[in-house]
Design brief:
Ribose 5-phosphate Isomerase B, Chain: A; 6 helices; binds D-ribose; alpha/beta; about 140 residues
C-alpha cells in the first residue's frame, strides 16, 4: 500500500508524528509537504494528494490541517475521492468498513498524537465490508455524474 500524506501549517507537527508511525509500520509513503512552517492554503496541499489517489498513483491519502475540515472539503471535491474527517477510533474503523474511504483527514488542533496514531493504524488496517455497503457507496459515487 502506498500513501500520500500532506498538511498545512496547522497540521505540520501531527504530520511529522504520523510520518514516524508510517515508517515504524513499514508503510510506503510520499510526503507532499509543506517543507516549512509558513502559512499556506490547505486546498493547495489537499488537491495533489486527492488527485494522486484518484489517479491510482497512491492507494490512500492522509490530510492534516488545524481542524481537518478544510482539507476534507477540498479532497471531497475531487472525483473518485471519499474522504472522512475522523477524530475517534470507532469512526476510523466504520468509515473503512462502510464507506470504503480512500482519504483520511484529521485536525491537529482537535486531537493529540496518541489518538491520531491509533486512528491511522485502525484506518489503514480495516477492510471494506462490501455487500450492502457496496450498493450505498456506488450510489454515492453516482452523485459525481
Ligand atoms: C488554518 O489556520 C486553518 O484554518 C486550517 O488549518 C484548517 O483548520 C482549515 O479548515
Amino acid at each position: 500500500m502506498k500513501i500520500a500524506i500532506t498538511s498545512d501549517h496547522g497540521g505540520n507537527n501531527l504530520r511529522h508524528e504520523i510520518i514516524k508511525l508510517l515508517t515504524e509500520l513499514g508503510v510506503e509513503y510520499d510526503d507532499l509537504g509543506p517543507s516549512t512552517d509558513e502559512s499556506v492554503d490547505y486546498s493547495d496541499y489537499a488537491t495533489p494528494v486527492a488527485n494522486g489517489v484518484a489517479s491510482g498513483k497512491y492507494d490512500r491519502g492522509i490530510l492534516i490541517c488545524g481542524t481537518g475540515i478544510g482539507m476534507s472539503i477540498a479532497a471531497n471535491k475531487v472525483k473518485g475521492i471519499r474522504c472522512a474527517l475522523v477524530h475517534d477510533v470507532f469512526s476510523a474503523k466504520a468509515t473503512r468498513e462502510h464507506n470504503n474511504t480512500n482519504v483520511l483527514a484529521m485536525g491537529e488542533r482537535v486531537i493529540g498524537p496518541g489518538l491520531a496514531r491509533e486512528i491511522v493504524k485502525t484506518w489503514l488496517n480495516t477492510s471494506f465490508e462490501g455487500g450492502r455497503h457496496e450498493r450505498r457507496v456506488n450510489k454515492l459515487m453516482e452523485l459525481e455524474n
